[in-house]
Design a protein that fits this description.
By secondary structure, the protein is mostly helical. It is about 50% helix and about 5% strand.
Length: about 60
């Protein structure tokens, strides 16, 4: 398994598929999504193909 910038081929493939799903959803709803939107994070993190963790911590109330 090749690592590049700390990511394995499998990690990059999972990220690519997650990006494709986000782009398809953005096209369907006609707007860009906020990467820290709790609903989007919930959808992505619950998908079995892509263990997704947000890049930024959730906002503090």
């Amino acid at each position: 398994m090749t690592k590049l910038w700390g990511l394995t081929e499998e990690d990059r493939e999972l990220a690519r598929r997650a990006n494709e799903r986000v782009e398809a959803l953005e096209k369907k709803i006609g707007r860009k999504l906020d990467p820290n939107d709790p609903v989007l994070l919930s959808i992505l993190s619950s998908h079995p193909d892509t263990p997704f963790e947000p890049l930024l911590p959730p906002p503090k109330d």
